[in-house]
């Protein structure tokens, strides 16, 4: 069996939360620039974006919920590498989109996100939540048993085999375990024509927690960005369009360096409960 469970949890068509949100491409490089702006300035930003970009056609009206579960070592090695500014660093996360508590077969994105100098690289595969958890949790406690990589490989397309192996190796070498979540409500805008690869997101109510890692629950998580402040990200494959640069200057938006995952760790005084003891079962 894939991770030591009965046939009733064998591979089925993955069921996503009823969000209407489609996930991003499975492999890409890009530049990401972040800003913090007060919520009362968002309408002006939204108005300017609407003149040159489309609201993401894959998004439900009004945006959608994004929740991510991040994995790290007990000594928070991934967090430390980010804070120390290593030119090459990476992390593993599971991301879900939309509302509703996830079940074992709910569709999630299992992602390696890495930074190489100034370029962000992402590789992802879509898996049932329970298999993504087993793949990233080196302890095996989250779902009751460690993943059987060979059997997981038999269930995914061959083009994704190297990524499965990489995640499994990363999890074992770093002793990864579930550590923290991030959660927010996202508005997304996409470029058109020659700027079709450009994307701008506005994230509201950024929060997180360091326990209870079943995704989709309606907890009042701890704010990890100051309430009343939104996180704006400009994401481009090659260069930022000049009009976007001019817009940020006109709106007096200042570039910041931040990680939502690191914000969660710091919100718990760099001592998240998930790193201090045994891993809590999720399924």
Order of helices and strands: EHEEHEEEHHHEEEEHEHH
Shape: globular
Q: Using the coordinates above, name the CATH class.
A: Alpha Beta
Name of the CATH architecture: Alpha-Beta Barrel
Report the C-alpha radius of gyration, rounded.
19 Å
CATH superfamily: VTC, catalytic tunnel domain
Number of domains: 1
What structural class should be given to the helix and strand makeup? alpha+beta
Low-confidence stretches: 5-19
Helix content: 10-25%
Strand neighbour order, sheet with most strands: 1-6-5-4-3-7-8-10
Strand content: 25-35%
CATH topology: mRNA Triphosphatase Cet1, Chain A
Mean pLDDT: 90
**What can be said about the biggest beta sheet?**
8 strands, antiparallel, barrel
Domain VTC: 29-268
Protein name: VTC domain-containing protein
Pfam families: VTC
Task: Explain the overall architecture.
- It holds the Pfam family VTC.
- Residues 29-268 form the VTC domain.
- With 283 residues, the protein is of the alpha+beta class.
- It has a single domain (27-270), classed as VTC, catalytic tunnel domain (mRNA Triphosphatase Cet1, Chain A).
- 23% of the residues lie in helices and 31% in strands.
- The protein is built from 8 helices and 11 strands.
- It has an 8-stranded antiparallel beta barrel, surrounded by 5 helices.
- Strand 7 and strand 8 (199-208) form a beta hairpin.
- The longest helix is centred in the middle third of the chain and has 14 residues, at 161-174.
- 35% of the residues are buried.
């Amino acid at each position: 069996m894939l991770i030591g469970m009965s046939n009733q949890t064998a591979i089925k068509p993955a069921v996503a939360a009823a969000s209407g949100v489609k996930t991003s491409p499975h492999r890409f490089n890009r530049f990401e620039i972040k800003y913090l702006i007060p919520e009362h300035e968002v309408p002006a930003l939204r108005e300017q974006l609407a003149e040159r970009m489309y609201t993401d056609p894959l998004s439900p009206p009004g945006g959608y919920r994004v929740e991510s579960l991040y994995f790290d070592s007990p000594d928070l090695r991934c967090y430390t590498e980010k804070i120390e500014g290593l030119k090459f660093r990476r992390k593993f996360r599971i991301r879900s989109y939309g509302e509703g508590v996830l079940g074992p077969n709910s569709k999630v994105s299992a992602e390696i996100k890495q930074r190489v100098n100034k370029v962000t690289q992402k590789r992802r595969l879509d898996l049932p939540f329970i298999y993504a958890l087993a793949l990233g949790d080196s302890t095996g406690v989250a779902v009751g048993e460690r993943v059987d990589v060979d059997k997981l490989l038999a269930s995914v397309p061959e083009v994704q085999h190297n990524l499965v192996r990489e995640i499994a190796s990363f999890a074992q070498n770093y002793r990864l375990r579930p550590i923290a979540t991030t959660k927010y409500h996202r508005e997304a805008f996409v470029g058109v024509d020659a700027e079709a690869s450009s994307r701008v997101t506005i994230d509201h109510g950024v929060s997180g927690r360091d326990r209870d890692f079943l995704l989709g629950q309606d907890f009042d998580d701890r704010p990890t960005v100051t309430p009343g402040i939104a996180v704006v990200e400009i994401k481009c494959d090659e260069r930022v369009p000049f009009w976007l640069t001019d817009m940020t200057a006109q709106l007096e938006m200042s570039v910041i360096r931040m990680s939502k995952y690191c914000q969660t760790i710091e919100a718990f005084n760099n001592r998240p409960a998930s790193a201090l003891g045994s891993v809590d079962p999720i399924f």
